[in-house]
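With this grant's support, we have settled on a layout for protein records. An illustrative entry appears below exactly as we store it:
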Amino acid sequence: MKSKWFRFTPPLAACVAGTLGTSHSLAQADDQDLIQDRNRLSVAARFSFGVRAQVENLSVPSLPAGEYHDGFVKPDISGSADNKTWYWGYQTDNQVVGDDLQMHQVIGSPSDGQSATSDSGLQAGFEVVYARELGRFNLGKRRVRWGFEVGISSLNSKLETQDQFAGTVSVLTDSFHLNGVVPPVAPYSGTYNGPGPLLDASPYASSSASAAATSDVHSTVDSLLVGLKLGPFVEIPITPKINFNFSAGAAGLGAFTDFKFQESAMVPSYPDLTLSRSGEISKDSFVVGAYAEATFSYALSDFLSLYAGGQYQYLGDIHVSTGGKEATLQFDQAFEAVVGLRTSF
């Protein structure tokens, strides 16, 4: 019996070579999908909700020595060693009572210990994110991409509070002897160098009384918020064109804040008192925390996609204070919606 040898004909050799070549090409393609289009650049609009500012009204600072809400009595250039001074002034004729001049100082404010909160509502900003794909893995039948991203964002937040408070205050009345001097017509303001009509440099009597009062406080917290984020991401395909994206990691926020306030008060039983004060301060702060973001993307082409979703950042509070007022920027209830375009290259 003769053995039959398998004959390796040229057509068969070509077929086998083609099959091997195709398998090798597929393997190369599968490897190359890890190194092609691994860079991503995203530009998005950010819409922030829930950034809040709480303004705490602390105790009103006392007036400097010799100053009142309706005038002043201070030592003049001589030092007033003889208890006489021409460096004084007053606001209304009602302060002249017989041979006395009465000065008043309001201690405290109806706003003391009270607070007001302003919610930002909707505010718009932008962000730019660069991401680098580092690899892919199988999740069931899905091919999941993963990598790291870094982003920077900007948002201008302006928060305002406008409140009226009612309560009681203490009114200190200091009485000074005129010693027969006829005071100039009010309003009058003497000079440090003088000369001018002389007044006792210290009061001969003081009294204090409680009085009803109201105060209006308007404050503004204007901040440029610059955010940074760094963390890993995963991209899970849902359909050939739709992907689910999730990222989380470390976040930082630089706040360049201008805080200012104006307060005016009225004491009905002392209608001639002028009670107003204001303050303004600028402060730069930086806080750190964490972020998490989830988005869906739709492929418009091989290299361009549209995406939308939401982001939450866990960040510490930012405090700014001046003149007995403290403003606190709070982010614990803040949420951001993002809509943007992403390109891969």
